[in-house]
C-alpha cells in the first residue's frame, strides 16, 4: 500500500533525526508491526548485554544490527561492524543467514564503510547487507492503516482543515519568532517554485494542501499586535534556509529540516502539525526563503 504524503514526510522526519537507542527502538517497532511474533526484539540484559543482536526475523533468518550515531566516522563504524558481526556469529550463528546493518545515512555510507561491508559479505557463510531509508519504509508500506497511524500518527482530513484554529497557528508562529529576533522585509517571489526547488511529489502535495490555511497565517500576521512578527518569522526561516543550503542540502531535505525547525513532529495534536504545514506553505508562497522560480530567457 502506498503511503500518503503526510505519512511519508512524518516517517522521514523521524527516521532521519533519531539517533542511538531512539533510532533502534523506531526500527524495532517497524519490524515488530510488520512481522509480529516472527520478530524477536532483543534488548541488553544485565551482564549478557544483547549478545550483538538488535533483533531477529525467525522465519527469514535475518539478524539486525542497528547503528545511528549523530556523526558517522569511518574508523569507529568499521570497528563497530567488526565487533558486532563477530559477536553475532559467535552467539547466533545457527539462527541467521543474513546480517543486516541498519543505518540512517540517507545520503549514503562513507566509502570505507561500504567497502568493508562488501569485503565481509560471505564471511562465515553469512550474507552481509545494509538497509537505510528506502528498505525500511518499504516495510512501513506493507503495514495496515491501523499500524501506520499508531506508528506515524493519524492522517488529517486534507479536504477539511477546519480543525486548524488561529490558536494553533499562533502557537507555531510565536515559537518560531523567538528563535531569531532579526528584522527583514518579506518579499514576494514569482510562481513556479515547486519545480525550481526540486521537491518530490509528496512534499508538493503537502504544500498544496497547506495553502488551504496559508491565508489564515497571513491574517494572523496582519492582525497581530506586534507588526514586526511576520518579518521576524521570515527572518528566522531565511537564516535557517541559508544555513541548510550552505551545508549542501537541497529539495526535500531542506523542507524536512524547516518542518523540524518549526516544531513539526513534536506536536501531539494533528491540528498543530497542520498549522506548521500552513506556515511553511505561506512562507513558500510569499517569501524569498526557498529558491525562486526559474524565468526563461
Can you give a write-up of this model?
This protein has helices at about 5-15, 20-35, 75-90, 110-120, 135-140, 145-150, 165-175, 195, 200-225, 230-245, 250-260, 270-285; strands at about 40, 55, 60-65, 100, 125-130. By secondary structure, the protein is α/β, with parallel strands linked by helices. It folds into 2 domains: about 5-150, Restriction Endonuclease; about 165-285, no CATH class. Strand 2 and strand 3 form a beta hairpin. Helix 3 runs parallel beside helix 4, helix 7 packs across helix 10 (about 230-245) and helix 9 packs across helix 12 (about 270-285). The chain is elongated, with a radius of gyration of 22 Å.
List keywords for this structure.
single chain, 297 residues, alpha/beta, Restriction Endonuclease, 2 domains, 5-stranded mixed sheet, elongated
- In the predicted model, the low-confidence regions spanning at least 5 consecutive residues are 180-191
H-E string? HHEEEHEHEHHHHHHHH
Tell me which CATH architecture of the largest domain applies here.
Answer: 3-Layer(aba) Sandwich
Residue share in helix = 40-55%
Number of helices: 12
- Main sheet: strand order: 1-2-3-4-5
Overall 3D form: elongated
Measure the end-to-end span. 43 Å
Helix/strand/pairing category: alpha/beta
* pLDDT averaged over residues: 83
Count of all domains:
2
Q: Bin the strand percentage.
A: 5-15%
Radius of gyration: 22 Å
CATH top level class name of the largest domain? Alpha Beta
Quote the CATH topology of the largest domain: Restriction Endonuclease
Amino acid at each position: 500500500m502506498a503511503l500518503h504524503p503526510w505519512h511519508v514526510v512524518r516517517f522521514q522526519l523521524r527516521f532521519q533525526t533519531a539517533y542511538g537507542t531512539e533510532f533502534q527502538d523506531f526500527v524495532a517497532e517497524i519490524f515488530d508491526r510488520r512481522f509480529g511474533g516472527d520478530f524477536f526484539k532483543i534488548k541488553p540484559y544485565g551482564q549478557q548485554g544483547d549478545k550483538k543482536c538488535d533483533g531477529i526475523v525467525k522465519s527469514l533468518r535475518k539478524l539486525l544490527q542497528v547503528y545511528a550515531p549523530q556523526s558517522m566516522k569511518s574508523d569507529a563504524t568499521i570497528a563497530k561492524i567488526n565487533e558486532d558481526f563477530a559477536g553475532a556469529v559467535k552467539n547466533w550463528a545457527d539462527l541467521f543467514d543474513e546480517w543486516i546493518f541498519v543505518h540512517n545515512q540517507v545520503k549514503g555510507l562513507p566509502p570505507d564503510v561500504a567497502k568493508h561491508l562488501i569485503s565481509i559479505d560471505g564471511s562465515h557463510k553469512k550474507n552481509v547487507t545494509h538497509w537505510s531509508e528506502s528498505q525500511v519504509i518499504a516495510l512501513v508500506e506493507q503495514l495496515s492503516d491501523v499500524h501506520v497511524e499508531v506508528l506515524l500518527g493519524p492522517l488529517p482530513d486534507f479536504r477539511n482543515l477546519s480543525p486548524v484554529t488561529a490558536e494553533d497557528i499562533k502557537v507555531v508562529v510565536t515559537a518560531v519568532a523567538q528563535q531569531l529576533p532579526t528584522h527583514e522585509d518579506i518579499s514576494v517571489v514569482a510562481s513556479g517554485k515547486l519545480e525550481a526547488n526540486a521537491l518530490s511529489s509528496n512534499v508538493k502535495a503537502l504544500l498544496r494542501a497547506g495553502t488551504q490555511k496559508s491565508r489564515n497565517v497571513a491574517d494572523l500576521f496582519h492582525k497581530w499586535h506586534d507588526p514586526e512578527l511576520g518579518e521576524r518569522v521570515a527572518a528566522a526561516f531565511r537564516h535557517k534556509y541559508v544555513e541548510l543550503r550552505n551545508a549542501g542540502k537541497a529539495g526535500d531535505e531542506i523542507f524536512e529540516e524547516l518542518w523540524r525547525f518549526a516544531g513539526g513532529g513534536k506536536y501531539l495534536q494533528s491540528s498543530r502539525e497542520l498549522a506548521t504545514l500552513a506556515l511553511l506553505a505561506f512562507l513558500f508562497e510569499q517569501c524569498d526563503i526557498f529558491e525562486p522560480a526559474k524565468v526563461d530567457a
